[in-house]
């Protein structure tokens, strides 16, 4: 399949898959859980490659090499599997270290749990970096009403000013490695790579996200994701 974008930049990715999936509660690590017979990590890796990624490092739980190698066998891009860390942030840092590419390569960080990310969304964060953004993340408007807890109760929040953040998140490889090292040295913990970039003063550019890039977190998410995949496969 031809990548859905074109750029002169090398495009590489860290696919974080080292989580246990405690909220899903499956018998295997979440990234090995199957949607319509295909492991989440395999679907995610294929979406990255279809979106133009040329090299993938996958972070996995320690001691799980064999099942992950089997799940990822035959991927149409160079692939390396490395042990992840105890947090997502640490897994990303270890994955970035294992990539073999120049500092100016475009790097994507993607959750294996967002297995149905459309290749066009992958391409759109790459293009944002190629067009000059320091960091790029996909976002969606928030659909629930939101309240913020206060000392005396709670207050309503204007949701029109809020966005939910997805992956893949993109930057230049050298800059993202430096930002993660900065966070590690200072003991700073944040929830995503855009926030790591902001710790070192990089501007974050927002691109439109997609509902199919939902994160499989709970058993109900698995039902929704299965339905999306089956709908895609319907002739
Ligand atoms: N130490 C960790 C924790 C998470 N992840 C990855 O980061 C992504 C987002 O994390 P999440 O979906 O919250 O996964 P888990 O941490 O496994 O979920 P839970 O909190 O339910 O255990 C997942 O693809 C997960 O595999 C990782 O590589 N290393
Ligand atoms: C990176 C992320 O998916 C963006 O929404 C999210 O922050 C991961 O959070 P989690 O705590 O690992 O579920």
Automatic annotation (TrEMBL):
EC number in record: 2.7.7.60
Keyword set, alphabetical order: Isoprene biosynthesis, Nucleotidyltransferase, Transferase
Domain of life according to the entry: Bacteria
Gene3D superfamilies: Spore Coat Polysaccharide Biosynthesis Protein SpsA, Chain A
Family matches, as Pfam families: IspD
GO molecular function terms attached to this record: 2-C-methyl-D-erythritol 4-phosphate cytidylyltransferase activity
Catalytic activity, as annotated: 2-C-methyl-D-erythritol 4-phosphate + CTP + H(+) = 4-CDP-2-C-methyl-D-erythritol + diphosphate
Residues at the site labelled Transition state stabilizer: 23, 30
Enzyme class: transferase
Pathway listed: Isoprenoid biosynthesis; isopentenyl diphosphate biosynthesis via DXP pathway; isopentenyl diphosphate from 1-deoxy-D-xylulose 5-phosphate: step 2/6
Site (Positions MEP for the nucleophilic attack): 159, 215
Keyword tRNA processing: no
InterPro entries registered for this protein in UniProt: IspD, IspD/TarI, IspD/TarI_cytidylyltransf_bact, ISPD_synthase_CS, Nucleotide-diphossugar_trans
Residue ranges of coiled coil: none
BP-aspect Gene Ontology terms: isopentenyl diphosphate biosynthetic process, methylerythritol 4-phosphate pathway
Function: Catalyzes the formation of 4-diphosphocytidyl-2-C-methyl-D-erythritol from CTP and 2-C-methyl-D-erythritol 4-phosphate (MEP).
NCBIfam families assigned: ispD
Family under the similarity heading: Belongs to the IspD/TarI cytidylyltransferase family. IspD subfamily.
Protein name: 2-C-methyl-D-erythritol 4-phosphate cytidylyltransferase
Native organism: Tessaracoccus flavus
Species lineage: Bacteria, Bacillati, Actinomycetota, Actinomycetes, Propionibacteriales
């Amino acid at each position: 399949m031809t990548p859905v974008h074109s750029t002169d930049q090398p495009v590489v990715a860290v696919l974080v898959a080292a989580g246990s999936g405690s909220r899903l509660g499956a018998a295997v690590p979440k990234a090995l859980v199957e949607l319509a017979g295909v492991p989440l990590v395999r679907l995610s890796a294929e979406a990255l490659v279809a979106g133009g990624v040329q090299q993938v490092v996958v972070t996995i739980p320690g001691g799980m090499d064999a099942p992950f190698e089997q799940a990822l066998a035959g991927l149409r891009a160079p692939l390396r599997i490395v042990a992840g860390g105890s947090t997502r942030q640490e897994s990303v840092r270890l994955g970035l270290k294992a990539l073999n590419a120049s500092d100016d390569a475009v790097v994507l960080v993607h959750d294996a749990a967002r297995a149905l990310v459309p290749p066009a969304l992958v391409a759109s964060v790459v293009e944002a970096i190629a067009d000059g953004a320091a960091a790029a993340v996909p976002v969606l408007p928030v659909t629930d009403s939101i309240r913020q807890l206060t000392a005396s109760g709670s207050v309503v929040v204007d949701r029109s000013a809020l966005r939910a953040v997805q992956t893949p998140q993109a930057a230049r490889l050298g800059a993202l490695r430096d930002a993660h090292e900065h966070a590690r040295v200072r003991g700073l913990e944040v929830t995503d790579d855009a926030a790591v970039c902001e710790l070192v003063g990089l501007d974050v550019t927002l691109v439109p996200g997609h509902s199919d890039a939902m994160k499989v977190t709970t058993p109900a998410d698995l039902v929704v994701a299965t339905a999306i995949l089956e709908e895609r496969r319907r002739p």
